[in-house]
Design goal:
Blueprint (H helix, E strand, L loop, with lengths): L3 E14 L2 E14 L3 E5 L6 H8 L7 E6 L2 E2 L5 H11 E5 L10 H12 L5 H10 L15 H12 L6 E5 L7 H18 L2 E6 L2 H4 L4 E6 L2 E5 L1
Parallel strand pairs: 3-8, 3-9, 6-7, 7-8
Antiparallel strand pairs: 1-2, 1-4, 4-5, 9-10
Helix pairs in contact: 3-4, 3-5, 4-5, 5-6
Length: 225
């Protein structure tokens, strides 16, 4: 049986807004096993992205507990949580989040450099080749289309061989044809690298490609499939 790689237990998140406590998530509990592909779906504002930030240790719950790779996040400080992210987690975002002044190759090597592994340009070139960007290594983000930028972001996400990949609306800024190509690539790379995929989306067709669905509605987990 696959080991639990993420576990949420009675997780809640609230923030202060105009001196009023605003509840974003309430009583969220589930587990994700190693190697699973799972989609967290719901309408805009349902709390999906907030949940992702909690699962990845980018923020901490107001109550409840999240275990990430067997570690209760409430027992770790920000530096320790950042260490887990740099060692074990990859991210792909809707807005690509490439560094404008770095070329494609430099953007891909960046996670390894930040982790202290050095600039493994050979591996970065192989990853760019695997996403169909051979010959574009020296192009800056502004010289690439949206689809090409997201391909660079995908290559970057796999640079450190993450155990978990979080993809937050990865096709939200792409046209339908480009989006379909990116999703095919995402699932192919995820399969090849044996990564656990947590996909945040409002697109039910895209979500249907995952093995399991979690539906969030108004901050609550309303269905698990």
């Amino acid at each position: 049986m696959s080991k639990s790689i993420i576990k949420a237990s009675s997780v809640a998140k609230s923030v202060l807004s105009n001196e009023t406590e605003l509840s974003i998530l309430e009583d969220i509990s589930f587990e994700i096993s190693s190697g699973e592909t799972i989609a967290i779906i719901g309408t805009s504002g349902a709390g999906k992205s907030t949940l992702m930030t909690l699962l990845a240790g980018l923020d901490i719950p107001s109550s409840g507990e999240i275990e990430l790779l067997g570690q209760p996040l409430s027992l770790l400080d920000e530096e320790q949580r950042a260490k887990i992210r740099s060692e074990s987690i990859g991210f792909v975002f809707q807005n690509f989040l490439l560094i404008p002044s770095l070329n494609a190759l430099e953007n891909v090597t960046l996670p390894a450099v930040l982790r202290g592994d050095g600039e493994d340009t050979a591996k970065a070139r192989r990853l760019l080749q695997s996403v169909g960007l051979s010959g574009r290594e020296t192009h800056l983000p502004a010289q690439l289309s949206g689809g090409e930028q997201q391909r660079v972001a995908l290559a970057r996400a796999f640079m450190t061989q993450p155990e978990i990949l979080f993809a937050d609306e990865p096709t939200g800024n792409l046209d339908q044809h480009t989006a379909e190509n990116i999703i095919d690539l995402l699932f192919a790379m995820n399969r090849d690298h044996g990564t656990t995929l947590v996909l945040i989306t409002h697109d039910t067709v895209l979500a249907g490609r995952c093995e399991r669905l979690l539906t969030i509605d108004a901050g609550r987990l309303v269905e698990q499939q």
